[in-house]
UniProtKB/TrEMBL annotation:
The gene is rnhA. CDD domains: RNase_HI_prokaryote_like. This is Ribonuclease H. Mg(2+) 2 binds at residues 13, 138. It comes from the Bacteria. NCBIfam families: PRK00203.1 (NF001236).
Length: 156
């Protein structure tokens, strides 16, 4: 039986301003009394959905050993995609039920691989509803966007 203390609790968020446009992602990882905050972004053209996918990918890829993960996202796209749709997409050669190519297939495959290393339980949380770590993930996503834009400005 896995003790609750052995669970890594992750809250993620991502977004763009405007969408599509520059974007950022953020993640808060908690285990015991350890907390890790992560963020990143893209200064070029990306989408809300890509940033929502990057957050759990980067958080899961940062874990150094297989663990039980409670992953909280405010994105129904991410939660439904990974828990309901992805196996059908894969079975259908990464085509939707409407026979269209799956969008963001590169990130869905990367998320599948990241999940395969762990036991991930997915939870949806309403965005901007006062859940502290979801609010913090939103702040981190904004920071990731701002840092990406600042780095891009320095490079020009």
């Amino acid at each position: 039986m896995t003790e609750l203390a052995d669970v890594v609790i992750i809250h993620t968020d991502g977004g763009c301003r405007p969408n599509p446009g520059p974007g950022g992602w953020g993640a808060v990882l908690r285990q015991h009394h350890h907390v890790r905050e992560m963020c990143g972004g893209e200064a070029g053209q990306t989408s809300n959905n890509r940033m929502e996918l990057m957050a759990p990918i980067m958080a899961l890829e940062a874990l150094t050993r297989p663990v039980l993960v409670h992953l909280h996202t405010d994105s129904t796209y991410v939660r439904n995609g990974i828990t309901k749709w992805v196996l059908g997409w894969e079975r259908n050669g990464w085509m939707t039920a409407a026979k269209q190519p799956v969008k963001n297939v590169d990130l869905w495959q990367r998320l599948q691989a990241a999940c395969a290393r762990h036991r991930v339980e997915w939870f949806w949380v309403k965005g901007h509803s006062g859940v502290a770590d979801n609010e913090l993930a939103d702040v981190l996503a904004t920071r990731g966007l701002q840092e990406a834009l600042a780095t891009s400005a320095l490079a020009t």
